[in-house]
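Entry 14. Structure prediction run on the chain below.
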Amino acid sequence: MVNIFKSQQDIIATAAKMFAEAAQKAIQERGKFVVSLTGGTSPEALYNLLAAPPYRDNIDWSKLYIFWGDERWVPLTDDKSNGKMTDRTLLNKVPVPADHIHYMYADGQQPQDFAAAYEQSIRQVLGEDLSFDLILLGMGPEGHTASLFPHEPVLHEKDKLVEAYYLQSQSMFRITLTPPIINKAKQIIVMLFGEEKAAALHQVLEGEYNPDLYPAQLIKPLNGTLTWLTDEAVAKDLTHE
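Output returned:
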């Protein structure tokens, strides 16, 4: 489902409402809400909104379990860290128990070893169905999502839930959830705005299927829902909603 809004503020307001509703439903049904957050600049406004009334007061934050969809392999003190950004905008403002927050970084570990340990943490929290209640994603102007970048071997991963690899174009290690675990989610929300991503969105949604070139095409929930929240600028090349 593609929802097109007039402004970024409308996207953020809708995403916050969907987040809160998913949290309340999961907590009522299963006693916990397991979410995978996204990084970059797009979600900062969402996290700030969730950390303020009424959402701050209407969500039982003690029942949340926090993971991330991807991360740069940098310390949590680094400005490039998704974890640091989320702490600043959300987690330092709401009472999520510290042992419920699973940052995608640990000092003194190798990225590949850490990725294997992160997968075990996911398995422990999610249990047998391995289904996140909600995964938040964005998309880059070349069609990547999470750290699933074009032409990388991780796009073809079938077994691992979490992978670490060296991204040559950025000269750094990245850690990412893989398509198999993303597509098991009960709900996926992709937030997009900005004309610079319009061409990629058109190809992802309406172009020939070529996930090596446009990795976001790999996001196809097995039993859950996929909702695109876009503004008019990024949706300008779409031929239908």
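The chain has one domain: 2-231.
Filed with the rest of this week's runs.
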